[in-house]
Fold this sequence. Notes:
Order of helices and strands of chain A: HHHHEHHEEEH
Low-confidence stretches of chain A: none
Bound molecules: iron/sulfur cluster, FE2/S2 (inorganic) cluster
CATH superfamily of the largest domain in chain A: Glutaredoxin
Distance between the termini of chain A: 24 Å
Mean pLDDT of chain B: 84
Largest sheet of chain A: 4 strands, mixed
CATH topology of the largest domain in chain A: Glutaredoxin
Helix content of chain B: 10-25%
Oligomer: heterodimer
Largest interface: A-B, 12 and 14 residues
Low-confidence stretches of chain B: 200-231
Number of strands of chain B: 7
Strand order of the largest sheet of chain A: 2-1-3-4
Largest sheet of chain B: 5 strands, mixed
Number of helices of chain B: 5
Strand order of the largest sheet of chain B: 2-1-5-3-4
Amino acid sequence: MDIAQIDSILSSHAGKPDRLVEVLQDIQDIYNYLPEKALWKVSETLGAPVIEVFRVANFYKAFSLQQRGRHLITLCMGTACHVRGAPRFIDEIKGRLNINPGETSCDKSFTVETVNCVGACALGPVVIMNGEYHDHMTSLKLRKMIEETEEKDKENAINGEDKHS
Amino acid sequence: MSDYVTLTINGSNIRVPKGTNVLDAALEYGICIPHLCHMSDLTPIGACRLCIVEVVENGKSEVTASCTLEAKEGMTILAHTDKILKARKNIAEMLVAEAPNSRAIQDVAVRCGVTEVRFPFRNKNCVLCGRCIRVCSEVWQANALGFVGRGKDRHVALPFHNRPEFCKRCWSCLEVCPMTITPCDGPMKEGEEYFCGKCESQLTMALGSIDTCVQCRLGAGFGCLRAEPEK
Lengths: 165, 231
Ligand code: SF4
Ligand code: SF4
Ligand code: FES
C-alpha cells in the first residue's frame, strides 16, 4: 500500500478536524477501504484524536476498516426485498464464494454486504453490484452475474499479462 | 463574582454559581439524588437516567435528568416525588438486569428500593455510562477511549482495539468504572444472575469506585448521613 497517495488529499485539510468525513471519503475512494496507517496519518494531520477518527470510521456504513474485494455486492434486505426472497441470495453467495455478509472472499475479488433498504422496494429484490442496481433478482441471475464477473476478471488478468510480456 | 442563581430543590432555597447543573447543586447542599454516570468535574452526558427529577414550571411538571439540567434562576425542582421514586426504581431495576455483576449498580438499586428484578438478565460488562471515556479525555487529556459502533453495537473501545502509545496507563478508566467490583459472591455466571441486595454491607462497599451513588453517600430515605430529614 502506498501511503504517500493520501498526502495530496490531506495537504489542503491540515489542522481542520471538521473535514474528517470528507477526507475519509476520499481515502476510501482510493483504497476501497480505510487502512489503519492512513487513519493515524489523518488524525495527525487534521488534529483530530485518533479515537475520534476510529469512531467516525466505524459509525458510517459507507466506510470499511477491512480490506475489501475488487467487486462489491450489496444485497438489499429491506422488508419488501426480504419477503421476495432476498435471504436466499445470502445462501447463494455462501455456497458460491463461501463468505457471509460483511466478509471478503480470500482471493479479494468479492465483498458482500447487506443494507436495510435502498428505497426501490417496487423493484425488489434489489442487488447492487459495484454501484449498478439490478432489479427483480433471482438466485440464478445472481449466480450468472458472479460468474460473468469472474470471467471478466480472468480475461482482464490474461490481457494484463499479455501487455506486460 | 456575583454570578449566582437561586433555585429551590425539594423546597429548600439553594444558591449556586451560574452554570452549575441541578444534580451538583443538590449534592452540594446535601440533597441526595442517586446517580451513576455523573461525576462532578466531568461533562455530564445523561447516560444512566438515574438522576431524574421533576422540574415544575407554571404548574406543569416535566421529568428530566438533573445532571444535564443547568440550574436557572427561580427554578423549582422536586427530586423525590412518588412519580420520580417509582420511575427511578424502575431504571435502577433495568440497570441491574443489564449488569448484575456490578456491585455499585446492585447497591444503587437497593437504595432505590428495588426488591426484585422483573427483566431478563443480560449480564453485560459495560453499562455505557461513559465515565471511563470522560475521565480519560477530560482529566488525563489522553483521548485513548471512545464509544464506537452504534445502536446495540455501541461499545467502549481503544483506537483500532489496541492500546495506543499515548495511553498514560493511569488506569483511571478502571478506577471510575462501576463494573470493576463484583457483588460479594463473585462474578455471576450467565443464566445464574440474581438481584443481590441482601446485606447491609452492600451499602458500604465500592470505596474504590469513586463518586458512584455508593461513595458519595447518596440515597435520601435510605439512611444516608447527608440525606434530608424525612417529611
Ligand atoms: S489508562 Fe489509558 S485509557 Fe485509561 S484513562 Fe488512563 S490514559 Fe485513558
Ligand atoms: S467501561 Fe465502565 S466506565 Fe466505561 S462506559 Fe462501560 S461501565 Fe462505564
Ligand atoms: S443521567 Fe444523570 S447521573 Fe446518569
